């Protein structure tokens, strides 16, 4: 395992996973995406960008574990828990010092980029604690960090960029393009503008199997990162930890949602039981009426016989 410090909170770790382990993770991602497309994942776990976004290459398919992130906002919605395959990845990161046990992520976003996909410059939501990290898979790419970015000059419509894009990715970007430099960091600042020219950017290659940890100034708020179009399909796993306040708030929301759901289920069961009892009450009431009528008829018949007997005895 080799760690490369890239200045100002950026560090890339290589050699954490063997080729077979990378292949197994790619298979895991492909299977999760297929399950999401076929509606087999829990709640809102699988997300597909709007058709117009996909048509212009902005965004990507995502599968969310632990929490739903949409348009760079953390939402309280039902999603899949972190599966064993991802827990094993986290254990590997901790064992190699990428993250400490206290920094252990509790969420993951699986990002599936189609060929030509891109992501606008953004800062990951402040709902997530720092640091966070991204594991690159299937094909190598690059990341651009800077205080003023336009996706390496390759973004189809820079004016359409919305900070965070479709949920943000965290710690990823794309090819440098014209104006990108290898060292755009000085005194902890990224991309300072020089004489009105395009700002410098930090250009970081991301080989497959590499893990990029993002912390400090690199994680924002001034510094952003972006992913320009890439000619090949690509996967990434972004691991982040919810901040304490956000985690507590979402735990309370989930608890309240669970109580509401249980109450709704209880009401439905009670209503169903009441519907089952109603016919029985009606039948019982009907039987009681019938029994009453039979009793009255029987008494009438007895009275009739007695009257007949009296009349017979009274005849001469």
Describe the structure.
The protein is an alpha+beta fold. The protein folds into two domains: 2-242, Alpha-ketoglutarate-dependent dioxygenase AlkB-like (Jelly Rolls), CATH 2.60.120; 244-316. 34% of the residues lie in helices and 24% in strands. The chain contains four helices and 16 strands. The chain has helices at 19-37, 51-55, 84-95, 244-314; strands spanning 2-5, 10-14, 46-47, 61-65, 68-70, 73-75, 107-113, 119-122, 128-137, 141-146, 185-186, 189-190, 202-206, 211-214, 224-227, 234-242. The chain is globular.
Name the features.
316 residues; alpha+beta; Jelly Rolls; eight-stranded antiparallel sheet; four-stranded antiparallel sheet; 4 helices; disordered C terminus
Question: How would you summarize what this structure contains?
Answer:
The strands form four sheets. Strands 1-2-14-9-16-7-4-3 form an eight-stranded antiparallel β-sheet. Helices cover 34% and strands 24% of the residues. It is an alpha+beta fold and 316 residues long.
**Unreliable residue runs:** 151-168, 170-198, 302-316
Helix content: 25-40%
Strand content bin: 15-25%
Kindly report the average pLDDT value.
Answer: 78
The strand order across the widest sheet is: 1-2-14-9-16-7-4-3
N→C terminal distance: 128 Å
CATH topology of the largest domain: Jelly Rolls
What is the CATH homology-level superfamily of the largest domain? Alpha-ketoglutarate-dependent dioxygenase AlkB-like
Report the top-level CATH class of the largest domain. Mainly Beta
Helix count, DSSP H or I runs of 4 or more residues: 4
- What is the gyration radius calculated from CA atoms? 34 Å
Give the overall shape.
globular
Q: Strand-and-helix sequence, N→C?
A: EEHEHEEEHEEEEEEEEEEH
> What's the architecture of the largest domain, going by CATH?
Sandwich
| Structural class label | alpha+beta
Biggest sheet statistics: 8 strands, antiparallel
Can you tell me the number of structural domains? Answer: 2
Number of strands: 16
């Amino acid at each position: 395992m080799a760690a490369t410090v890239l200045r100002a909170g950026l560090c890339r770790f290589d050699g954490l996973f063997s080729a077979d382990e990378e292949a197994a993770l790619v298979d895991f991602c492909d299977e999760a995406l297929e399950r999401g497309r076929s509606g087999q994942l829990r709640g809102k776990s699988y997300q597909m960008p709007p058709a117009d976004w996909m048509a212009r290459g902005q965004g990507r398919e995502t599968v969310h574990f632990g929490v739903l992130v949409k348009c760079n906002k953390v939402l309280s919605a039902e999603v899949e828990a972190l599966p064993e395959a991802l827990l094993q990845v986290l254990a590997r990161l901790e064992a190699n010092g990428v993250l400490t046990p206290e920094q252990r992520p509790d969420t993951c976003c699986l990002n599936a980029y189609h060929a030509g996909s891109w992501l606008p410059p953004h800062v990951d939501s402040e709902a997530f604690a720092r640091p966070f990290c991204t594991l690159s898979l299937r094909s190598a790419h690059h990341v651009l960090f800077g205080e003023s970015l336009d996706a390496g000059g390759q973004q189809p419509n820079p004016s359409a960029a919305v900070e965070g894009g479709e949920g943000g990715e965290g710690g990823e970007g794309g090819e440098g393009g014209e104006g990108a430099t290898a060292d755009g960091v000085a005194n902890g600042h990224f991309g300072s503008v020089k004489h009105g020219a395009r700002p410098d950017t930090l250009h970081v290659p991301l080989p497959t199997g590499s893990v990029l940890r993002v912390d400090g100034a690199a994680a924002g708020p001034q510094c952003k990162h972006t992913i320009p179009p890439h000619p090949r399909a690509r996967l990434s796993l972004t691991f982040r930890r919810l901040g304490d306040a956000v985690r507590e708030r979402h735990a309370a929301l989930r608890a309240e949602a669970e109580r509401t759901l249980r109450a709704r289920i209880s009401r439905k069961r009670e209503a169903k039981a009441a519907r089952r009892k109603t016919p029985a009450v009606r039948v019982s009431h009907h039987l009681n009426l019938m029994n009453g009528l039979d009793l009255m008829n029987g008494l009438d018949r007895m009275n009739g016989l007695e009257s007949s007997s009296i009349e017979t005895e009274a005849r001469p």
